[in-house]
């Protein structure tokens, strides 16, 4: 294997067993990194494929909203691999797809707790140990910029992630730690894209057609380049933001889709 910049580096990925996370785990293992995949889902972690890279992969069941659990996970990572060089703070919960007047307060709090407080807990626990030259990427969403209808909690939480990214980038710059956000927009094709369009079609919002195929078509038509972004492109962006090629980049929010999003995510 040719030497890569990530070889022997320690990468922490939350939501590491999910759609984006599992793809990144595979990519970074292949580039020679030691990867800690944290996820609340024990089943999903169990099926996370690290074949051929067993010594480089540490799977930890961890709920990012539990500060003691996150501290214990970080201690485990330090013991096995050393302090984190890179963090993809990526765990997230979409919440209900439901217009504002019917949105449950309980679900609103849950979305904010996982997407905002949980992200901060992980960021703080890792940043305390990260060396100068390290890099953090927080997963926001284009929903946090364009504010997707029927997704009030999610949009508010991802706007908070973008603000958290700018603020922590300033606070951590003197320590030599960069912090950026990645905002996936229309990502597909595949199961997640189809499910999202079905949920939007069923949510009874006047902004979405009530047929999933039409919803999908309308969304793509709103993108100047008329294409979806891919999971690989999201991971490409994270890899770039980790790399020395991005040593001048901090406090930014990189949107990943086929151009500019329509806002009807
Ligand atoms: N898929 C998209 O099109 C899209 C678009 C924009 C933003 N995002 C964001 O990207 C990130 C990853 O999404 P995904 O598409 O891979 O979804 P996913 O549901 O496949 O992955 C999310 C992972 O986070 C884990 N998770 C949820 N709550 C957790 C908690 N409290 N502690 C630890 N882990 C927890 C889940 O178990 C899951 O494995 C999320 O932050 C999501 O909001 C996704």
Explain what this protein looks like in three dimensions.
The chain has 265 residues and is α/β, with parallel strands linked by helices. The protein has a single domain, classed as Rossmann fold, CATH 3.40.50.720. The chain contains nine helices and seven strands, in the order E-H-E-H-E-H-E-H-E-H-H-E-H-H-H-E. It has helices spanning 19-30, 42-46, 67-80, 105-127, 143-146, 152-172, 191-202, 212-221, 231-242; strands at 10-14, 34-39, 57-61, 86-89, 135-139, 178-184, 253-256. It has a seven-stranded parallel β-sheet, sandwiched between helices. Helix 4 runs parallel beside helix 6 (152-172). The radius of gyration is 18 Å and the shape is globular. The protein starts with 9 loop residues before the first strand and ends in a 9-residue tail after the last strand. The mean pLDDT is 95. Bound molecules: nicotinamide-adenine-dinucleotide. The site of nicotinamide-adenine-dinucleotide (NAD) has 27 residues, from helix 1 and helix 4.
Report the CATH topology name.
Rossmann fold
Give the strand content. Answer: 5-15%
**How helix-rich are the residues, as a percent range?**
40-55%
Radius of gyration: 18 Å
Using the coordinates above, name the CATH class. Alpha Beta
Spans of at least 5 consecutive residues with low confidence: none
Main β-sheet: number of strands, strand sense, barrel status? 7 strands, parallel
Based on secondary structure, the structural category is alpha/beta
What molecules are bound to this protein?
A: nicotinamide-adenine-dinucleotide
What is the number of strand segments? Answer: 7
Main sheet strand line-up: 3-2-1-4-5-6-7
Mean pLDDT: 95
